[in-house]
Amino acid sequence: MTAAVEKKPDEVPPSSADAEEEVDDVEEDGAPEAQGAGEGKKKKKKKKTKKKKVEQTEPPTIGLSKLFPDGNYPEGELQEYKDDNAYRTTSEEKRYNERMAMEDPEVTYNNIRRAAEVHRQVRKYARKVIRPGMRMIDIAETIENGTRALVEENGLESGVGFPTGLSLNHCAAHYSPNPGDTLVLGEKDVLKVDFGVHVKGRILDSAFTLNFDPTYDKLLEAVKAATDTGIREAGIDVRLGELAGYIQETMESYEVEVNGKVLPVKPIENLSGHSINPYQIHGGKSVLLVKNDDQTKMEEGEYFAIETFGSTGRGKVIEQGECSHYARIVDAPHVPLRLTSAKSLLKSINKNFGTLPFCRRYLERAGESKYLLALNHLVAQGIVQDYPPLCDVRGAMTAQFEHTILLRPTRKEVVSRGEDY
Ligand code: 57R
Ligand code: CO
C-alpha cells in the first residue's frame, strides 16, 4: 500500500490505471532495402512497442483485473477527522495500525476499493444511457451486466451486492422490476438508481438520482448537500443521533418551487443510512435523517452507507406495491420446513446469495421457476425478510444520494466518491 499521500478532496481516483497494451508497430528503420537485394544481410527490424492505454469499453465489459494488473485499486476521497480525533492523521500509532491492517487480507481496503471502481465505471455508462422511453427491466439489466463483467463475477466471491433499486417519484427505496414488469421510464420521472457491488462480501453501496426535466433540480441539490454534510460530519466516536441532526439541518435549509408553489424539502423520517458488515447490507447501526437521541457511536474500522432521502411530501414512507427485494435473515432461527419446495428454494438461496439481498429476477436467473409460494412460505417462517417498496404519498417527489465511507484509523475515506457525485 502506497504511503497514504494526502489526496486533495477533489482528486478523484483515475478511471483506468496504468494498463497498457503492447502495440508493436514495426519501425522500418530507414528506407526499406530494395526487396531481394542482399538477402542474407537482412537488417534486424527494431520492434518498438508503443504503449496504448486500455480503456473501458461502452457498454463496459472489461474485467477490472485487466485494467489494474498490479491489483491495487484507487483510494477514494480522503477527509481528516475533526475535533478530538484530528490527531489521528499524524499519529504514528494510528498510521502503524493502518500499515499493519493493510497487510491482513481480511482488513485490507483493496476489496472495497475494487468494488468502488466497478461502481464508478458502471454508473458512468448508466448515467450516459438511461433515458426516458427505456424499460425499467432494460435499465436494471444494463447495470447488472456491467457489474457482473467488471467485477468478474465469481459465485459468492464477487458479484452484484443487492437488487438494483430503480425507485420512481414518490417511491424512495426498494423498488426493482420483477419478471414481466413492462414499466417504461417517463420524461417527468425522478429516478433513484441504488446498486451494489461486492468483493469477498465487502459491499459497496452507492446511489444517485436522475431527473430529465429541471422542475425538481433543487430537490436533488438539497439531498446531495445533505448527504455530503452527513459524510463530512461522520467520524469515529460521532453519535448517530447528532449526525442525523446535521443532515436534517442541511436538508431543511432548502425549498423547491413546483408550478409556482414553494415546497419545503423534508428529510424522510423513517429511512436511514446504515453500517455495513461483510455479506450483510445492514450492519445493525442506522443513521437516521432527523435529529434523535440515539447515543450509539461510530467506531474505528466500521464501514457506513451514508445516504439521505428528501421529499416534497409528508417526509414519511409506507410499504406499497409488489415486493421484489428479499434477504435471508442473518441469524434466522432454524425451523423445520415441511414444504419441500421451500426447502429446495432455501438451498438455492444459500448457494447463490447466502445473506446477500436478492430479487425475483435473480432467482429466475439462478434457474428457479414457480418459486413464489415457497418464497412467501420462507418469509412467513421468518427465514427470509421481504422488503416491499417504500413510498411517500402519491404526488410527492423523493430523491436520494449515497456513498460508502470507511472509518480508517488515520482518516475517513469516501471510497465511492467519483467525478459525478
Ligand atoms: O439502503 C433486500 C436490501 N437498507 C437492500 C438495501 O432505510 C438495504 O429502512 C436493505 O435488499 C435491504 C430503512 N431504515 C429503517 C431501518 C429506519 C432503508 C432505505 C435505504 C436502504 C435501501 C436500506 C434501508 N434499510 N436497509 C439497505
Ligand atoms: Co444503502
Automatic annotation (TrEMBL):
Coiled coil segments of this chain: none
InterPro entries per record: Creatinase/aminopeptidase-like (IPR036005), Met_Aminopeptidase_Type2 (IPR050247), Pept_M24 (IPR000994), Pept_M24_MAP (IPR001714), Pept_M24A_MAP2 (IPR002468), WH-like_DNA-bd_sf (IPR036388), WH_DNA-bd_sf (IPR036390)
Binding annotation for a divalent metal cation 1: D194, D205, E402
Protein localization: Cytoplasm
Catalytic reactions on record: Release of N-terminal amino acids, preferentially methionine, from peptides and arylamides
Keywords (A to Z) from UniProt: Aminopeptidase, Cytoplasm, Hydrolase, Metal-binding, Protease
Top-level taxon of origin: Eukaryota
CDD domains registered for this protein in UniProt: MetAP2
Cofactor(s) this protein cannot do without: Mn(2+); Co(2+); Zn(2+); Fe(2+)
GO CC annotation: cytoplasm
Residues annotated as binding substrate: H174, H282
Top class in the EC scheme: hydrolase
Entry keyword annotation includes Oxidoreductase: no
Family: Belongs to the peptidase M24A family. Methionine aminopeptidase eukaryotic type 2 subfamily.
Protein name: Methionine aminopeptidase 2
Record organism: Trametes cubensis
